[in-house]
C-alpha cells in the first residue's frame, strides 16, 4: 500500500475531523446553561455565566481536545501540552501584535502540533542527568518551545492571513442566499469524506465578529441578531426531510420485511429528528443512489437560502434537531417559520424518495437481498471481538478512532474486511480511503464501538502479530540476500545507522523502525521490490515485499 502526499494529507484531515468532535461535544451543555440562565427563562446569572465560560474559552478547549484527539493513545499529557502551547502562543502574539485574533484556529493549530509532537516524542530517552524530563514529560516542554517559534512566525504572517479569512467570511456572509446555498451543498457533499467538520469549524467558529464572539454559532448565542443564517437551514432537512426519507424507505420495503426494517428506520428517523445526527440515514442511500444524494445536497442548499429569504435565524450547539430547536427558539428570529417549511420539506423528501426508489428499483433497507438486512445482536463483551473479526483480525488494524457517527480506521489491508459481517453488525456504510483508511458508519454508538474494538485488540495481546511459520515457509524464514543486495537495501534505508529495528511480519511485510524517515529513498526501495510503502507513525514504516520479506529481514539484521 503506497502512500502519497495526497493520501497523507487526507489521513491528516481525517484525524483532524475526528479530533474536532471532542471539544464540540461540550457545546450542548454550554448552550443549555447559557440559555437556561437568560432573563426570559430562569433568570439566574450564575447559570448563564457558567455556560458563557465555555463559549469564552473555546480556543483553549479546542487546543486540549484536538491535542488529545491527535494523540495515538488519547493520553492526557497531550492535552496538558495543548494548554501550555496555547497559553504560550497567545502570550507571544499579544506581545508582538495585540490586533491579531486567531480565535478558535489558534486552539486547533496548537492542539494539532501538541498531538503530533506527543506521537513523535512520547517515548524519547534523554541523558541520565535529564532522564526525569524524558518520555511524556518532554511533550509539554517541546510544545511550549514550539509555540514560541510559532508565535514569532504567526506574528509576522498572520495579519494578511487574518485579513484574507475576514474577507472570505465577509464574502460568504454578504453573498446572502448564494453563499448559504454553496455552503449547504458543500456541507452535505463533504460528509462522504468526513471533512465537513473542518468546513463547519470556519463557518461556526471563525467567520464574522460580534462583541468579541466569532463564528455564526458563537455570535448567535452572544445575541448577534444577524447570526444564525448558517444553521437555520439545517433544521427543515434534519428534523423533517430525512425522517420523511426513512418513511419512504419503509413504505417501499417488501411487505413481508417491513416489520424487520421498521425498527431500524424508526430509530434512524428519531435520531435525526431529535438530535440532528443524520449520517446513518444518509449512508443508507448515499452509494445506492448517488443522484438521489446529490438531490439531497441541493435541497439542503436550497433550505439554507430559503430560510435566509424568510429571515429565519436559528442556532444550535450540537446539530439541528428538536432538542436544539427548543433550546434556541427563544433567541431565534422568526423561528416559528421552521415548522411550515419543515412540513413542506417532509412532503418533498417523501415524494422524491418514494418515486426514485420505486422507479429505479433501489435496494434500500427491506429491498436488498435477504441476507444483507439481517443484523446480529451481541452482548457488550462480544461486540468488540465481532468487529475485530469482521475487520480482518487484530493484525489488520493499525489505528482505531471514531467521531460522532463513524469509526475512523487505518488498515493493513482494507480488502481483507468482511463488509457483509460489518453490515450485519449495524454498519450503515463503509468508505475505503487512500492510504489504508477505512470509515465504518454506525451512528451515535461509533465511539463506544471503537472502545470495544480497542479492548478486544488489547485482549489479544497486541495490534500486530506475526503468524506462526508453516513447514512450507521454513526455507523462506532462513533465507538471506547476497552482499550486493544487502548493501543496496541499507543504502536505500539511509544507512545501517538509520535502521533501529527490522522484522518480517504477516509473512509478506517488513516492519522498519527508522531514526529519520526522511533518509529513506522510496524510489530505490520500489526498485528493490517493495510493492507498497505504508507510514505507521513514529518512524515506523511497513513495506509490502511478498515472500522475500523474511530474506530481507534476515539480511538487514545481520
UniProtKB/TrEMBL annotation:
Q: Which residues form the PTS EIIB type-1 domain?
A: 381-463, 483-558
Keyword Cell membrane, does the record have it? Answer: yes
Question: Where in the numbering of this chain does the PTS EIIC type-1 domain appear?
Answer: 7-369
Compartments it resides in:
Cell membrane
Q: Matching InterPro entries, A to Z? A: Glu_permease_IIB, PTrfase_EIIB_Cys, PTS_EIIC, PTS_EIIC_1, PTS_Glucose_EIICBA, PTS_IIB_1, PTS_IIBC_nag
Record keywords, A-Z: Cell membrane, Kinase, Membrane, Phosphotransferase system, Sugar transport, Transferase, Transmembrane, Transmembrane helix, Transport
Provide a Gene Ontology MF annotation, just one. Answer: protein-N(PI)-phosphohistidine-sugar phosphotransferase activity
Note the Pfam families from the entry: PTS_EIIB, PTS_EIIC
A single Gene Ontology biological process assigned to it is:
N-acetylglucosamine transport
Where's the active site on this chain?
A: 403 (phosphocysteine intermediate)
Does the record's keyword annotation contain tRNA processing? Answer: no
Q: Which residues cross the membrane?
A: 16-34, 46-70, 76-93, 100-118, 138-159, 180-207, 227-249, 261-277, 283-307, 337-357
Which SUPFAM superfamilies does the record associate with it? Glucose permease domain IIB
Q: What is its main location?
A: membrane
Q: How does it sit in the membrane?
A: Multi-pass membrane protein
Q: Which GO terms describe its cellular component?
A: organelle inner membrane; plasma membrane
The protein in question is named PTS N-acetyl-D-glucosamine transporter
What is the organism field in this record?
Salinicola socius
Top-level taxonomy: Bacteria, Pseudomonadati, Pseudomonadota, Gammaproteobacteria, Oceanospirillales
